[in-house]
Amino acid sequence: xxxxxxxxxxxxxxxxxxxxxxxxxxxxxxxxxxxxxxxxxxxxxxxxxxxxxxxxxxxxxxxxxxxxxxxxxxxxxxxxxxxxxxxxxxxxxxxxxxxxxxxxxxxxxxxxxxxxxxxxxxxxxxxxxxxxxxxxxxxxxxxxxxxxxxxxxxxxxxxxxxxxxxxxxxxxxxxxxxxxxxxxxxxxxx
Length: 190
Hints:
Largest sheet: 4 strands, antiparallel
Number of helices: 3
Distance between the termini: 37 Å
Shape: globular
Strand content: 15-25%
Number of strands: 11
Structural class: alpha+beta
Order of helices and strands: HHEEEHEEEEEEEE
Helix content: 10-25%
Number of domains: 1
């Protein structure tokens, strides 16, 4: 569908179409649990065979947050554990994992030392930042869009990621909160 046609479709209709896609995917019964650890090197879907994902930063109304090398916003999910993804099936239709075909690299304010990967059940290498699996939001259609910020879907909140590795829990007008406001003991996110 052309982008000019997409912009003429009302937002509620576009969102309804996304939900229909998610429900269709759920009916297909996909499963994607994850492994742990910082692993890289294998080809993965979504990033091209053998190509490495670049994670960089962009400044917006909610503060400075992580994006991919094309400027597409990436998110973390409060339900995930450290070096693990709980998003599978219909969840991945609305929140596709950020994958890489090589070792992810950092640019901007992103830190290379915070980048890693986990292996999903389909063999894809999902990019992690500070131990948190990264995702795109299907409702973001352009560079720097943050339509998924604060969304509560599939049982937990989705947040922008600050360069420090913390979740950004503001929805605009502020700066990224300090890591102590987002991280809980034991490495999870609230």
